[in-house]
Amino acid sequence: MTDEHDLVRWSEALAGIARTGLAFTESLYERERYEEVLHVASDIHAKISDSSNSEEKVTEWMKSVGEGVPGYVTPKVAIGAVVGNEDGEILLIQRSDSGVWLFPTGFADIGYSAAEIAEKEVFEETGMHVEALRIISILDGVRAKFTRMPLYSIVFHCKVVGGELNHHPLECTDAGFFPQDKLPNPLAGSGNWVDHAFAAIRGEVIEVEFDKPRRPVWKQDDAI
Q: Which residues contact 82 (CB under 8 A, 6 or more apart)?
């Protein structure tokens, strides 16, 4: 059965192909075809969001079309930080934009390494100084139910090295450390990340978590 996740993925994939095509083609006929693909993608998106105006999404996508390599559409990158304290509790923030609880996370900014972003986001959102220790997961944000936006979420395990808990007044409505049996609600992504995060906090040997490839992988059979 087709679920909302599939519709989101198909809509964004079609839009990405079309916008990338528009970034590279100089053919008027190809541009018309790619724009038609954008309209199909926006119709799918409208079904998901119960919107009657699919043209708004087309306009949004068209405004983001670049030229050449800078216009090649790729997923955004978000960097998250799983931070534990001496009591084995996890640091969570309540996001002001959605009301859900999640570990500190934010888009990767230009000029910083991924680990630097993890430490920076924790300080900006909570006031805590941390040290990034290792990557514990690389996830598709849509499949993890974090977002409807094409996004890769890279999550670091970090340790506290200083600071005082003081949540950001605009990005968060609350922040705190919580034990696994007393987590706040609602949790982002239905809490499907909780067990892996606490295993990292407990110091257990864990592999980097990632989304297992769907089968068959796109065009895999053609490549053999």
A: 90, 91, 103, 136, 155, 156, 157, 158, 197, 200, 201
Q: Which amino acid is at 104?
A: P
Tell me how far apart the alpha carbons of residues 50 and 39 are, in angstroms, rounded to a whole number: 16
What letter does residue 98 receive in the DSSP assignment? Answer: T
> What 3-state DSSP class applies to 169?
coil
- CATH number of the domain bearing residue 147: 3.90.79.10
Tell me what the mean pLDDT of segment 83-110 comes to.
Answer: 95
Whole-model pTM: value is 0.81
Query: Which domain range does residue 65 map to?
Result: 4-71
List, for residues 7-44, the tens digit of each pLDDT value.
888 888 899 999 999 999 999 999 999 999 999 999 98
